[in-house]
Amino acid sequence: MPAPGSVGQVATLAARLFTAQSPLRLASGAVLGPVDVAYETYGTLSAGKDNAVFICHALTGDAHAAGFHEGAKRPGWWDNLIGPGKPLDTDRFFVISANLLGGCQGTTGPSSTNPDTGRAYGLDFPLLDMADFVTVHRALLAHLGIERLLAALGGSLGGMQVLEWGLRHPEQVTNAAIVAASSRLTAQNIAFSAVARRAIMDDPDFHDGRYAEVGVVPRLGLRTARMMAHITYLSEDAFSEKFGRTPHPERDKPGFGIDFAVESYLDHQGRVFLERFDALSYLYLSRVMDYFDPFSRPDALHGVAASPVKFLVLSFDTDWRFSTDHSRRIVKHLQNAAQPVTFREIPSSWGHDSFLLPVARYHDTLRGWFGRALREGLR
């Protein structure tokens, strides 16, 4: 029996949204087809189709946001948030979660087969833009017969996608929640991703992105990229509280192996990551974040000026990867356009990862915000 509040066992579905005859035209002008998208849904769509909430995932997320798959050891990545009685209550809302274009969990990406060559795209896959994620997920909504969202919600990269969606297509998004995100990465953030990508591409097993053809994976590079990223996801207080300077229990004597508990944790995170994520997707999706800068467009706020979106922007006080300054910048731009925007900085000791955790004030804020959205309904 599923635990109370769980959506229970779920299945990941797939939809072919673009074909070779009717391809996806990317923001760059390149075309791509066919394009398949993996997605899951939770709850029931109302008769008026006015209770749909779209979930946008972070860099290494996927469509499996809630519930569990048969035989899986862990529930979906946002299971603490989505389900009966939870802040995103599936007794009241119809929730859609879909894998990003360029991903590696069922949606077309650089490891998919290029129909022109019969081989994996590899680095021949076109570079992507945040707008491309939105285009594909809007096509999924059309496939599901949904014209307008009651809300879109995303954390980190997902929050960036929600911002893009709200700015480019405000007529489709009544409410938009942007959590622990940014509208423009700092040089430091770009630097972190640059080192991660270099670790992957300099791995001897990378083979110019053709590693699958020779039966290998750039394991060392991908593991290093994930280990470094995890350092940025937690605050110093979280590392101190969780690990301190505790020696690894299997340490024999000081050396250059895994001597401390924190080293063991990072090593574990890197190894587990190899089982579920592809190096090419890491390259492509992280690069999209680097170039995202929607407010640099002269017409960025024209759409919401004509069709306002009710924005919620949340940050966490110990998040140094996307600090509160990133959120305040988003809020400032929206306020300058006279948009209805609510901002909250949430106290949490867990840093950037807080958006994935059941932080009480965070969940209470979302619960109240979703309740208000449902009461007010679609415009």
Your description of this structure?
The protein has 379 residues and is of the alpha/beta class. The chain is 33% helix and 15% strand. The protein has two domains: 13-185 and 292-376, Rossmann fold, CATH 3.40.50.1820; 189-287, Rna Polymerase Sigma Factor, Chain: A, CATH 1.10.1740.110. It has ten helices and ten strands. It has an eight-stranded mixed beta sheet with strand order 1-4-6-5-7-8-9-10, with helices on both faces. Strand 2 (24-25) and strand 3 form a beta hairpin. Helix 1 (130-144) crosses helix 2 and helix 4 (219-233) crosses helix 6 (261-274). The longest helix has 17 residues, at 360-376. The mean pLDDT is 94.
Compact description:
The chain has 379 residues and is an alpha/beta fold. It has helices at 130-144, 157-168, 187-201, 219-233, 236-242, 261-274, 279-291, 302-306, 324-336, 360-376, and strands at 13-18, 24-25, 31-32, 35-42, 52-56, 94-98, 149-155, 173-179, 310-316, 341-346. Helix content is 33%, strand content 15%.
Q: What is the architecture of the largest domain at the second tier of CATH?
A: 3-Layer(aba) Sandwich
Pattern of helices and strands: EEEEEEHEHEHHHHHHEHEH
Would you give the CATH topology of the largest domain? Answer: Rossmann fold
Number of strands: 10
Helix percent band = 25-40%
End-to-end Cα distance, whole Å, is 39 Å
Strand order of the largest sheet: 1-4-6-5-7-8-9-10
